[in-house]
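Trying the structure run again after the queue cleared.
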Amino acid sequence: MEASSNTIELQDWQSTLTFLPHDALPDSHSITSYAKSTAETGTDFYDRSVTSSRYAIAGVACSSIVSCCCIVTGTVIISTRGIAGKIQLIRPSSSNPNLQAEMLTLILTLIVTLCTESIGLMHGISLRSALASEARLIFSTNLRLFTAAHGWRNPNGTLLNGLMAILLILSYSSVSIALFPPDIMGVPLLVLGIALLLQVAIASCMRNVVDLNIAEGPAMPSETQPSAWQAHPHIRTVVIFLWGLVVACTGLVAFLRYKQNSWNASTSWTLIPPPEDGIYGISYYLPMDISVQAWILAIGNITVAQGPLTLGVHCSELIVNTIQNEGQWRCATARKGLRTMVNPLKAFLINPLDLVLFVMKPALHWMFGLSFSVQFVTDDNHIIVGFFTKMLVIQTFNLCIAQFIFACFFTLIALRRPRGPQPATYGHLQTLANLVDEWSPVMWWGHKKDEIPYCHAGTSDHQLPDVKMDCVYAGSGATRVPSTHPGRSTRS
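Done. Tokens:
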């Protein structure tokens, strides 16, 4: 087979598989695999990801149904009751009229999270396909909205990625103003439905995946491996951005405390603001003569304010997915081994990081809606004549604390260094190609051969002994001293 950037180069297992210096993971424009092929083993266990495809299709189908329901409902409300139309959704609670509305907002935010996660799964697959076809797939996990393929018409190109980011923010911001207790408004529902439907259309433009050639030199095992912060450059950017959100929110709390209308010592902490809590913050009123303009300004205000939070939480997926990739790879030294075919739903449900992020996404957006709200003012004919934008001190402080905890948690996860001599990969495809020399449905990694001058470590379909910490390891065919360039070696 002719080696190129768009083909898989398969050779025998006598290759220079080594312990990679992971603090300097190589950037490659192609990936060379020297693993034993299925033709040699007589086994065909290639995972065509049928289960993943079914889950992705089912999730996108459900998202399409939700979007269509929102579009239809919003259109009916607007056509029957005007652009300021709304329908009563709940019966106000006598004790706290805002409680039921906020609980429904939380439920609606959770539904939006389910839809956007399903769409993101398919859009992420499409991104890996596009990057692989361009020989630019370095890590299996990438920042989905900030990693673009070539070509402006590409579903993962810069233009459509930017559109996807705007649509993602609109999905959450429209939920924040959809409920106007005790009513639900038609325009935000229509905007939500259109945003979800457009995301489905962009994410569904999928392509086939192809694998993408460098070698690494001999090295001694290490008792600890580098952290995800050291190995993946984009993770550092994400962590810094999360702390930037904390600083910005802290500054906003200080500003609101300085500018607030009134404050007294009897003010008590509360998660959900009572109706009269608007005095403990600031608000501004924008009079409008045309309802369409009012809607544009209202949605624009909430989108600009909520956008950084939405993007920050979205980028946190990179940390979770990278750590999950590493956790799965490290199963290769466990007693049960590494299973190459995994049910994605089961993997999600047993991964605590996935569950934490899934819970925190709607929770943070819901808490933002508590601290930053839009209230419309209508005349006797139910025509919107303006709106108030309210920012509440206590609820903004609550959001700041939640963001601080969120940033601390993901910083610690990113800085954690795996223990043991098994080289960390963090989804780096060339490193995986270097370390895997035999593919099987269940694989183990460890010591394979004692040779002079280098020992050989690799994978097998049976459990292997631990590597020897006082030995130098390389591929079974390596006989020359590696070059001094970090992460590179000289082939024999």
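Residues 201 and 461 are 42 Å apart (CA to CA). Worth checking whether this holds up in the mutant runs.
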